[in-house]
Amino acid sequence: MEHNLHLWFIPLLPLTGALINGALGRRFSKPLVTAIALLSTAAAFGMALNVVMQFSGLQLPYVENHGAWIQLPGTFNVDFAFMLDQLSLIMLLVVTGVGFLIHIYSAGYMADDDGYYRFFSYLNLFMFFMLMLVLANNYLLMFVGWEGVGLASYLLIGFYFHKHSAAQAGKKAFIVNRVGDFGFLLGMFLLVKHFGSLDYSVIFNQILQHPAQFPIESGAGLLTLVSFCLMVGATGKSAQIPLYVWLPDAMEGPTPVSALIHAATMVTAGIYMVARSNVIFNHAPMALNVVAIIGALTAFFAASIGIVQTDIKRVLAYSTISQLGYMFMACGVAAYSAGIFHLMTHAFFKALLFLSAGSVIHALGGEQDMRYMGGLRKHIPVTFWVMTIATIAIAGIPPFAGFFSKDEILWKAFSSSDHGWIFWAIGLVTALMTSFYMFRLLFMTFFGERREGSSLEPGHGHGGHGAHEDHGHGREPHESPWIMLGPLVVLAVLSVVGGWVGIPHSMGKLIGVQQNHFEEFLAPVFEHGNSEQVAASESKEPPTKYAKGEAASDTHPSDATEIELTGVSILAGLIGLFAAWYLYLSRPELPARIVARIGGLYSLVVHKYYVDEIYQDGIVEPIVDGSRSVLWKGVDVEVIDGAVNGAGSTAKGGWSIMREMQSGNIRSYAGWVALGAACLVAYMIWMGAQ
Fold this sequence. Notes:
Oligomer: single chain
Mean pLDDT: 87
Shape: globular
Helix content: over 70%
Structural class: mainly alpha
Strand order of the largest sheet: 1-2
């Protein structure tokens, strides 16, 4: 039976909403703008659900080709085509499902904003590009979506463009991502040169079907170079060391933007790209090792900064960077399904955390500083309970969603190689820090007594909620309307049960579940590693990192070991909870004493290790000064302008002499004739002498 899912229609729906609201929204009422934005997103989600219902009857990967895009006969062709498989289906559901919930929430959160229509136009535009990215059948179409979400991110981060900090944050995100995108472009150029195509299936099939031509590289080779280029792009989009610096500043945008773009979707694009390119990375163990190292270091580094942040959204921003590091580390040990599993559960609980933070900010009239919160659980009980659920989920405490996906990554890291315990140890310490700073956030915000004071300027909102807004700061904190609370409740349910689809094999045995259903579902996308391991053993090549990561439970430490390590990770989460309770509820005077005792270390961490300052002084300022002194004053003014102005001055000087010759004075003309005759006679005499 042939199917036509009309995949092209899914991204077209939010694009239509973006165009209508962008062009005409200024004239529309807010309810009409809301209806257009929400219906277009709801329809895309509905079509995604229709795809799910027909999925079992599809021949995978399912491809819809809508014609040639670029044609260079006999050399290079790119089609405008969409592809659906297990991986893109999960991403499709996450983008449309979580995106729709955030659109609903935004209708309440942004209700009083003057740029209401503009906000929803940008939000729909982002949905269009993100769906293009995940449904693309080739790297070039993926890159269109990749650049598009970067554009939408720039527009949404800098939404309050009249604020200097927001405008600067938008530019910072755009420029830093362009650095990563340059690597992505180089990777695509290499693929075109050596494979003559950017189509996933063409490239992957060539690699898998010609093992002699494309062996698993023990050192640096073509596929390693391609992997490194793609990895640079991924570090930019997914905010990994050294290109993570844009994401904390992105909190200048409205809170729903943080939830959608910088927690659930756009920042996971790099993870998706690495997972999609698993065949390439499986043949480049060196690149995979670097991916794992970057992920582990980023997870730990960002978590350490999150511990000392006082802005509620910046705590969540560094938490996002840290959790993305977990996903990166999972891909680096070739546990791609574990990385995508955490991507999905993270979308649930981190979107919930950001939206709950938005509800807190809404209740306090724009306040974001946790030092001026406290005691809010009595005033906003629904927000308190859903945020508690999200906090338990991200802390990795069972049976909430984050526990299963985080623990799966830790186990895959531990069993990936002889040195996998190092990644496991870093991940474990990071899990402890995550639990600590998240429960610190919860206790400082909702427990104790309300702390007096404010970081807000009189009559103004704060940060991501808009400098022009005041939702009643100075009044009693108030619960958000149900148009905002409804999506929080749905995300809370998903944060509880979302991990049950991926119960690890060892734990599943204890409750009668024989398979990790999530891993089994994704296996066809990532199963190439097993066949490659066989081929490698026959050709005496080293086995792929993939085989060691994904098949670890069959060949590495026993199920008992996995259970023991699971217990250790649960204990780490509980220790973090207890430490936060002890320091911020039982003995709230202790944090100040600790800071006084370790003042230098605290200053280093609270200033984010001075990375922004190092970038500013070591990279930005030299480029600006060099551009000003050399390119502008030296090349532009002195050389280019000098040549043009010099030509003009020469012409002007020459014609001033000619003007004297044409004075209209007969005596002057006689003089010039005499001078010309004398010159002519002198020339003839000189020629005769020769």
